[in-house]
């Protein structure tokens, strides 16, 4: 049996990092962990190939070779997924689909032969058993949550590591919080389910043995969802694992209560974590209460962010506008917050209601849903009828994005951050591509770019004031270029959308 695992293309989005990856000659930021995990669950005697369309082309030969195509995708990959499914069917390849988009809208994909939905640990064995008996059904789904103690090490051998900027592994699934707009709890549950530290080490060892020397993203929904296990079982083992290794820095996603736990932050930094993405959402207490983001209420959020930065963790932040409680002042308040906190990578989006969330149910009851979701939450679109007029919301959104990603304010924020940040403990060794990226940045940003003044000002300041953070300064300059490019594209689309409506 020949199995072709296919990952559709991401459009040019905030998180695609497409414009930044060109500087280091990488094709994508991360490989498709879901597909690699599924690959490891298939019978070992089956032949497997991965085609991640973000890094390589799907050829007619691939399709000729394949008996089955296993496809995974997020909503944002919808267009590419559709095209790929059509090509598979034209080539008479049977299509098996799983992953987030199919969980939320599998009825929209009439050409798919089999849907293996939710967590493959539960549904894939049923599909495989039925397939063997020659009676595979069209849909396999479950409302149970899997025990991930049995999840195998992803099949890294299928990946061309050098095409990616980072690798990823997963320690836990689920989140103890209950934010109204988030579908993590519906998809993966309230109780964080964890792997054993031994499983994580086996995954890291496997990556290391395949020659990976670079960042590893722990893709947990909330890495600190179960602090006790993290502190007693995982982090001490990670600290040990790092000893004698060439730099493998880690990054992850967490919640703001990380700022309350000095020892946890210290242990994470010791283990090699240098960045954490946190859903800040809004500085407005009423909006936080409205979306049940209890963990963010009654806090000095700027000070929390700074405390985490001072401990040695960069905070990337998620922000949302369009809550019912938002007033026209929210746009400037978001700008002020982002600038003051020094959150360089600020993902700002309009509030959206993904199916399966409490927000979706509430707005459905209120008759306030309209249209579908693009799956990109940083493109200025929404499936909600907001309390504020949609035009005012879009204009305010544009105002935020234009401000925070304008070279002047972006570089100002980088400096605010670098002043606070404790240099990371573990850094990957600089390779030739990174030196070349620096020279490319001089040409593209320091000579040709409209940010050239800010670029040189930042590099000189860093050289004299925070020399150990010089490579971070260059990286941020390159990220800034990507964010600005994406904003330019998205904001033009957003204006066109406003004009149409
Ligand atoms: C890592 C990650 C990313 C990475 C993607 C890297 C990559 N190459 O895939 C980055 C940071 C780029 C990213 C970006 C975004 N992401 Co994201 N991301 C995740 C995250 C945290 C982990 C995904 C992962 O690797 N999980 C680990 C693997 C093992 O799980 P899995 O992929 O779900 O696979 C399991 C099953 O789904 C199933 N399965 C999966 N595929 C297949 C295929 C077949 C054939 C079968 C049988 C089974 C199967 O089996 C696996 C084992 O159980 C998830 C949340 C989550 N916990 O899943 C969100 C998530 C996938 N992201 C989401 C979203 C919305 C986004 C963004 C739009 C912005 C945002 N809010 O973060 C952007 C869009 C991307 C872009 N470029 O524009 C949503 C997707 C919702 C949807 N319906 O599409 C999720 C579910 C988070 C959420 N609840 O909102 N993301
Ligand atoms: S803390 Fe994050 S992952 Fe957890 S429910 Fe809220 S938004 Fe979702």
List keywords for this structure.
501 residues; alpha/beta; six-stranded parallel beta sheet; 44% helix; globular; binds cobalamin; binds iron/sulfur cluster
Descriptive overview:
- It is a single chain.
- This protein has 501 residues and is an alpha/beta fold.
- 44% of the residues lie in helices and 13% in strands.
- The model has no long low-confidence stretch (mean pLDDT 96).
- The strands form three sheets. Strands 2-1-3-4-5-6 form a six-stranded parallel sheet, sandwiched between helices. Strands 7-10-11-12-13-14 form a six-stranded parallel sheet. Strands 8-9 form a two-stranded antiparallel sheet.
- It has helices spanning 18-21, 33-41, 60-65, 78-90, 100-105, 120-132, 184-188, 197-209, 227-242, 262-271, 285-290, 301-311, 330-341, 358-365, 390-404, 407-420, 432-447, 452-465, 470-500; strands at 2-7, 47-52, 68-72, 94-98, 114-116, 139-140, 167-169, 172-173, 193-194, 216-218, 250-254, 273-281, 314-321, 346-350.
- The radius of gyration is 22 Å and the shape is globular.
- Helix 9 links the parallel strand 10 (216-218) and strand 11 (250-254).
- The chain contains 19 helices and 14 strands.
